[in-house]
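Predict structure. Input: Queuine tRNA-ribosyltransferase accessory subunit 2, 398 residues.
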Amino acid sequence: MRFSLRSVSHCGCRVGTLSCTRAVNDGENKEVETPLCTLYTKKVDMLKRIEKLPPIVNMHLSSLADYTEALNKFQHGVGQFTALQDFLVYISVHDTGIEIPSGYNTKAGTAVWNKAGKKLIEPQQFVKCQEAFRPTFYQALSDSDTDKNSGKKRAMKAVDRTLDFLDTILELHKKSERLRDVGVFGSVEGGFHEEARMRSARETAARNVDGFVIEGFYAQNEKNKQIDVEEIKDLCNKVFKILPEEKPRLMHAVWSPDQVVMALELGIDVFDSCYPWLVTERGGALVFSFQYHNNSENEREARSTDGFEISLKDKSMFEDFGAPVPGCSCYTCQNFTRSYIHHLLNTSELLAPVLLMIHNFHHYFEFFESLRSSLKTDQFLKLKTLILEQRPSQEPPK
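Output follows.
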């Protein structure tokens, strides 16, 4: 895996190219542009209905760990096993979209959670899992169970555990023939404690990793907890001065559009896309505009003031026979109305989240296309202004 940083704008946004070699398919090489978001997935249905899918799919150790034996026998990797063989595969430790009970990590390993309950994964077992999964790159095992209420002692313990896990994993990874072309991302931990963060950044950067996962600011014990970039801005700036510029930075969070544009200015390269999934879960449709070329005064006056999303569960949708988002080219907006989806939601039809997911993914991925275009044409500040103008006056319902 190789990352080429092509430019850094005056506001701090990074534009680059991530060159990845697949661990399967005869070592095929693929280049992707950053900034980008990965494809968040729990299922693989209906993907052909969504245009311009991200080239990298994000799967989770928590949901795959129980299938290690089957995947090991299959021998062709989790991408082909799940019919996602055309994608690059990134495996993170946790699923950003679910709640994770706090207090179960130990010095021996990290607790992951799925429908079967808790499973403690130790570094040796973790590497065996990756040998079975054969991803393009993966996040090394980490202890990210910290937040702004965590004390300095807990933050330091998270850093120590994560570095110990990383050292063991890198040693085993180096000896593995199956993982020869697979990238490893080290995790930068430390909660909100500067000393712990700086140590984690320095020590992780000193290891032979291909990139960095920035985490440990928010424990995942509260579903739908959205990140606040302003809250972590100063600490991240100090961390990024330590990390080498020529390696990519990835961050898992519930990324609403306003937080994405602010995180880009911090220097984040890769995001996850659980946000549109969570919007779908609450019966919402993304409606925010990212057409910065058309941000005239008349356009601003005509624009919806509902924030980034609307609720199709709302009674006002009962007789609304317009498309979920007028002018949207996705399958859902071209074929169905707000009223119909409102009916599906109120009758708990399985088709409702499918149609919403198609639209919300399409909308979110188009937003990232617009971000990359704005950076190439030096129009990012126009797009940022447009996004921040649409901030909701209050948080959406959970």
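The chain has 14 helices and 16 strands.
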